[in-house]
Specification:
The chain is mainly beta. It has one domain: outer membrane lipoprotein receptor (LolB), chain A, CATH 2.50.20. Helices cover 14% and strands 41% of the residues. The protein has a 13-stranded antiparallel sheet with strand order 6-5-4-3-2-1-13-12-11-10-9-8-7. Strand 9 and strand 10 form a beta hairpin. It is globular, with a radius of gyration of 18 Å. The two termini are 25 Å apart. The relative contact order is 0.21.
């Protein structure tokens, strides 16, 4: 589960992986019979209310840790597609580790709060101030105060208005941040019934004439609570640049927080 600093750290992370010198996570959920006090009987009235409703619906049941094997199909700078196997572990809120095995040596990428670290062996290849917005809106939202999520979304240029209703993949959704017909502005699409993130659109920060469109599909309900999108697709200006397919999924296994720390002194 990767994303870009403004376009989500996924495309940016892929750029790191393919730099010359040498980016998570499905199917019904019962509604609460009594909506939270800040949500009108007819539903949330704005984007902020949707974020709060997402938190309130799953705050007592969403898993704290997640692990899985990821089949990553990635478009390279040469416009060819390659397939890799990644191992990912997440500790919510705010921590994600990706281990990638290659013939040239393993690569580790870690998102920790507002930072991204990529290293090989004991050598850190990248340190960047960036958040994985997909970790925030797909997972952390259920495990941290709504005020924290809202602050991060605003800092990442996702507005909470306007808000409208639409349909995506045959299901009703809330669209936060864009008016009808606008498929270029920063916006979040949230399943209306399940209150799960299903899509984001934003300008590509490397070329704002293009857009990045990220989709969470194939949601599966996890044993013990919470959901997981077992297929994630990322499009850049309508062209698929990465597909992620998850297997061997585990939730609430113990995870040592130390695995999210980069090599010291490098």
């Amino acid at each position: 589960m990767i994303s870009t600093s403004c376009i989500g750290s996924r495309v940016a992370f892929v750029a790191v992986l393919f730099a010359p010198a040498g980016a998570l996570l499905a199917c019904s959920g019962a509604r609460s019979s009594a909506p939270p006090s800040h949500v009108a009987a007819s539903g949330p009235v704005n984007g902020e209310a949707v974020i709060r409703a997402m938190h309130d619906k799953y705050a007592g049941s969403w898993y704290r840790t997640l692990g899985f094997t990821q089949k990553s199909t990635i478009r390279t700078p040469a416009d060819t597609m390659i397939v890799e196997t990644w191992k990912e572990r997440a500790l919510m809120p705010g921590h994600l580790r990706i281990d990638i095995q290659r013939a040239t040596g393993s690569i580790v990428a870690v998102y920790s709060g507002d930072s991204l670290f990529v290293w090989r062996g004991d050598s850190v290849l990248t340190r960047a101030a960036t958040r994985n917005i997909l970790l925030v809106i797909g997972f952390d939202v259920y495990r941290q105060p709504p005020e924290t999520t809202l602050a991060v979304l605003r800092a990442e240029h996702f507005p909470m208005a306007p808000m409208r209703e639409d349909t995506w993949e045959g299901r009703p959704v809330y669209v936060i941040g864009a008016a009808a017909g606008d498929l270029r502005s920063h916006q979040l699409w949230i399943d209306k019934e399940r209150l799960l993130f299903v899509r984001s659109i934003e300008p590509d920060d490397r070329d704002t004439t293009k857009t990045v469109d990220i989709r969470f599909d194939d949601y599966v309900k996890m044993t013990g609570g919470g959901w997981l999108s077992e297929r994630v697709e990322i499009y850049r200006d309508g062209k698929l640049v990465q597909r992620e397919e998850y297997s061997d999924v585990r939730t609430n296994d113990p995870i040592d927080p130390a695995i999210f720390a980069p090599p010291a002194g490098r």
